[in-house]
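Table 4 source record.
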Amino acid sequence: MNIFVSNLSYAISDGDLRQAFEEYGEVSSAKVIMDKFSGRSRGFGFVEMSDDEGQKAIDELNGATFDNKVINVAVARPREERSDNNRPRGGFDRNQRGRNNYNNNRY
């Protein structure tokens, strides 16, 4: 079972996450997801355990306090594929000038 853990303290390491879940059974892997640019934790991670042990860990740890933060623990869902149409757009669009009260005071 793949378990999603969110609202983790930025100080939590893979080893800390593994140790917290080992109380409920054998942990195949524990990984805190890191930002690829800053190298800092993104505040969530994944733990792999057997189904029975994993469900027990979810039931016990969801809403628990871990390193002074209340964590959310649930069964991980597969990532949804995003089409290019649903991808957020960034940058400046000349046709959208004034939309965010920018240039609204021009005469």
